[in-house]
TrEMBL record:
Protein species of origin: Thermanaerosceptrum fracticalcis
Keyword Coiled coil recorded: yes
Coiled coil feature spans: 329-356
Molecular-function GO terms, alphabetical: catalytic activity
Ranges where the Amidase domain occurs: 26-423
Keyword Coiled coil: yes
Protein name in the entry: Amidase
InterPro entries: Amidase (IPR000120), Amidase_dom (IPR023631), AS_sf (IPR036928)
């Protein structure tokens, strides 16, 4: 097991106050990476990482000698999934194509992190073009198991204590699933709530920029910096009360494994014991159609994004990605239009069910079960798909361990643009789930 505590709020407080010397912090993390990284391979190799970070840390110290004027993420090390353009780093997107193809201005969300005082630890491993062809990353809880994908390296780096915050993306389940598999918090905001400019897109209609931290308090801090128009949830009667949780009964839930469903029922009992009201509501009656529309749209847009690259470098693509592109080429414009329209229709349907039944948050398993053994695949994202398709904000919280002693997660979903309420309510839920 290669996990280690790395609280974003705690690290920020110590660095900003000077209680933790910035250069000492950098050296300690680099020491840990030298020992642990060979076992989990979360980071894109960088031969001069320590010297670069120490130089950047010294510059930051000189810029902010007064602790009272230090920015909100002063000195914090952040991992960046290798599909974001990042100044000073090549972008390879987990692929064998020439990195020069992906050059361009730095991603807007990376700029925001730098402006907030963060230091870029490095690029984190991603599956090829954020799809299913995995990289070498292993799960810090048990290296014989996958960390999930496609944000494999970001989730593993946070779980291993390399950085208290990392950037990822989700097109189907690439934030929520790896966070659950690695026993940390993953947040996929409302669609387009975090700017995606500077991202090597998989599917512009579905891609969400997401975040990884070790606790909800840290996620609140990160979201307040990166999300457009963030307004902290005002203390009041609505937020003070426990949210009513809705379980989407039916064919969607039946997609989980026997192990996953058994754990889910135990997690529900713990939440009821903690004072939460849970309502079981039939939903996703057309889940098979939703799943198909989502995938066909994603593949069609992937084919469009890669049209020129694929024509020149087809032989450099791995089989899973190549098959997805070829499938996407077959999708006709009318089907693509219908799939895009279906996103809003599903969102409206889910929010209408919430209003009808007095539900504040949907509750569901974060994955079909715990992390599968081996790293040749990243696990099934099917439990995350409809929430991504609808563009609704979703957070996964650690929720105990499986019978095989691997982390489990629960995902909670709020109405569109209710990200602030979701994270505020998640604080209380997190406290209950820690007892599992």
């Amino acid at each position: 097991m290669y996990i280690s505590p790395a609280s974003l709020p705690g690290t920020v407080a110590e660095l900003r106050s000077g209680q933790l010397d910035l250069l000492k912090y950098v050296n300690e993390i680099c020491d840990r990476i030298e020992v642990i990284e060979p076992h989990i391979q979360a980071l894109i190799p960088e031969p001069d990482r320590r010297s670069r970070l120490l130089k950047e840390a010294e510059a930051l110290q000189n810029m902010y000698p007064d602790s009272n004027k230090r920015p909100p993420l002063y000195g914090v090390l952040v991992g960046v999934k290798d599909i974001f353009r990042t100044k000073g780093f090549p972008t390879r997107a987990g692929a064998q194509l020439p990195p020069e193809l992906f050059e361009g201005p730095e991603a807007e969300c990376v700029k925001r992190l730098r402006e907030a005082g963060a230091l870029i630890l490095g690029k984190t491993v991603t599956t090829e073009f954020a799809f299913f062809a995995p990289g070498p990353t292993r799960n810090p809880y048990n290296p014989e198991h996958t960390p999930g994908g496609s944000s494999s390296g970001s989730a593993a780096a946070v779980a291993a204590g390399f950085c208290p915050l990392a950037l990822g993306t989700q097109t189907i389940g690439s934030v929520i699933r790896p966070a659950a598999f690695c026993g940390i918090v993953g947040f996929k905001p409302s669609y387009d709530r975090i700017p995606s400019e500077g991202l090597i897109y998989f599917s512009p209609s579905l891609d969400h920029v997401g975040l990884f931290t070790q606790d909800v308090e840290g996620m609140n801090l990160a979201a307040s910096i990166l999300c457009y128009d963030w307004e902290p949830a005002a203390p009041g009667e609505e937020i003070a009360k426990l949210p009513v949780l809705g379980v989407p009964e039916g064919s969607y839930l039946a997609q989980a494994s026997e192990e996953g469903l058994k754990a889910f029922e135990a997690q529900l009992k713990m939440l009821v014991k903690g004072g939460y009201e849970i309502k079981r509501v039939p939903a996703f009656e057309n889940i098979k159609e939703i799943n198909l529309l989502h995938r066909r749209m994603a593949f069609a847009e992937l084919a469009q994004i890669h049209e020129e690259w694929f024509a020149r470098y087809e032989d450099l693509y791995r089989p899973q990605t190549k098959d997805a592109i070829l499938t996407g080429k077959e999708v006709e414009e009318e089907e693509l239009k219908r799939a895009r329209a279906g996103r809003l229709a599903l969102r409206e349907e889910l929010e209408a069910l919430m209003a009808e039944h007095g539900i504040d948050l949907w509750l569901s398993p974060a994955a079909v079960g715990s992390a599968p053994q081996g790293i040749s695949a990243t696990g099934d994202p099917i439990m995350n798909l409809p929430w991504t398709y609808a563009g609704m904000p979703t957070i996964t919280l650690p929720a105990g361990m499986s019978e095989s002693n691997l982390p489990l997660g629960l995902q909670f979903t709020a109405p569109f643009m209710a990200d602030e309420r979701l994270l505020e309510w998640a604080k209380g839920v997190e406290m209950v789930l820690r007892r599992l």
